[in-house]
Amino acid sequence: QVQLVESGGGLVQPGGSLRLSCAASGFAFSNYGMRWVRQAPGKGLEWVSTIDTNGGTYYADFVKGRFTVSRDNAKNMMYLQMNSLKSEDTAMYYCAKNSIRGKGTQVTVSS
Q1: Is 94 left (phi over 0), alpha (psi -120 to 50) or beta?
Q2: Which DSSP helix (H) or strand (E) runs through 54?
Q3: Which of 108-111's residues contact partners 24+ apart within 8 Å by CB, and which partners?
Q4: Which residue blocks in 12-110 are alpha helix, DSSP H?
Q5: Fewer Cβ atoms within 10 Å of its own Cβ: the N or the C terminal residue of the chain?
Q6: Span 21-74, pLDDT tens digits
């Protein structure tokens, strides 16, 4: 069955960086576009970024120029490099294949 496991979250100061990872299994990873979504406390799910099967990347306006999504099809992995983090980036971050999400990894940006 499809399994998505996120890692790499943590506590970071404003302006800092984190790199999230998503380990995928149970499906032909290279055949699917993948997404990062997030959910801040008390808010709904919010799309962050997508990487398609050709490596094309797409970003929400609020992360453009700060976040970079990538994938390694040989390792069935997707990544999200997050730079210049802001307090408003605090959220649970999930990787997703269609409507399926992992359990998430918490990112907290605070001084």
Answers
A1: beta
A2: none
A3: 108/9, 108/10, 108/11, 108/12, 109/12, 109/13, 109/14, 109/16, 109/85, 110/11, 110/13, 110/14, 111/13, 111/14
A4: none
A5: N
A6: 999 999 999 999 999 999 999 999 999 999 999 999 999 999 999 999 999 999
pLDDT of residue 96: 97
Residues 6 or more apart from 32 whose CB is under 8 A from it? 53, 97, 98
Assigned token pair, 31: 């055949």
The contacts of residue 84 (CB under 8 Å, 6+ apart) are 15, 17, 66
Q: How many CB atoms lie within 10 A of CB 94?
A: 22
